[in-house]
């Protein structure tokens, strides 16, 4: 797994051990890491409709549903190969540094995605091309999703949302980027938003784009 490294002793915040979430009958593993005291804030424990319970379990349920909905054709081509994803919940300072280094934007943003492979969600054969480059027993690493806590919490407050609900939307958004989705033009954005809306609705979460400002940044 890639993800952000734990902070060294003396750094601000606390890095929890990486938790492995097994999804889809063990076919998919998510390495979930929470970095910093801000993730101990009780606001993240407030249930988001049916995405209740421990935060890690809720993330696992969301990710499993999203992959089933958005990537069934692509994932079918992977067959028995393990699929790996990294999700790091960190703070604004860490995300600002990544945003500056990789996107030349010296500010925090709500979510960053770093796809490990070039996949076209509308052309499953691109997955075959990726798999042909991997050793037979090697897992398929889809990439990293990295979330900034303070920004997510502030956006949730501004939009009148439960923080966990906004977090789940951003994780779904980030995962879709790993699967090759983007929002460069209106058609792409409409397709991506439609998947996010339907996935969240399956857990009783309202349309995150309805009458709000501050949709996920173009990451």
Automatic annotation (TrEMBL):
Its EC number is 3.1.-.-. Its cofactor is Zn(2+). Keywords: Cytoplasm, Endonuclease, Hydrolase, Metal-binding, Nuclease, Ribosome biogenesis, rRNA processing, Zinc. GO terms for cellular component: cytoplasm. One of its GO terms (molecular function) is zinc ion binding. It is an enzyme of class 3 (hydrolase). Zn(2+) binds at residues 173, 177, 183. It is found in: Cytoplasm. GO terms for biological process: rRNA processing. Binds 1 zinc ion. InterPro entries: MetalPrtase_cat_dom_sf_prd (IPR023091), YbeY (IPR002036), YbeY_CS (IPR020549). HAMAP family: Endoribonucl_YbeY. Single strand-specific metallo-endoribonuclease involved in late-stage 70S ribosome quality control and in maturation of the 3' terminus of the 16S rRNA. Belongs to the endoribonuclease YbeY family. This is Endoribonuclease YbeY. The gene is ybeY.
């Amino acid at each position: 797994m890639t993800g952000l490294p734990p902070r060294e002793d003396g750094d601000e915040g606390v890095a929890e051990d990486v938790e492995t979430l097994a999804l889809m009958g063990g076919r998919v593993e998510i390495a979930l890491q929470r970095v910093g005291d801000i993730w101990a804030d009780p606001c993240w424990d407030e249930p988001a409709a049916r995405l209740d319970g421990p935060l890690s379990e809720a993330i696992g349920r969301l990710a499993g549903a999203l992959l089933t909905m958005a990537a069934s054709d692509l994932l079918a081509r992977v067959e028995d190969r393990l699929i790996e994803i990294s999700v790091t919940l960190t703070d604004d300072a860490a995300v600002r540094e990544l945003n500056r280094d990789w996107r030349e934007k010296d500010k925090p943003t709500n979510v960053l995605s770093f796809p490990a492979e070039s996949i076209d969600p509308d052309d499953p054969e691109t997955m075959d091309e990726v798999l042909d480059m991997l050793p037979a027993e090697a897992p398929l690493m889809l990439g990293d999703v990295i979330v900034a806590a303070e920004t997510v919490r502030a956006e949730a407050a501004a939009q009148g949302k439960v923080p966990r609900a906004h977090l789940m939307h951003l994780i779904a958004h980030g995962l879709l980027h790993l699967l090759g989705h983007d929002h460069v033009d209106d058609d792409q954005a409409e397709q991506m938003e439609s998947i996010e809306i339907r996935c969240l609705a399956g857990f009783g979460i309202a349309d995150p784009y309805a009458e709000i400002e501050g949709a996920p940044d173009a990451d």
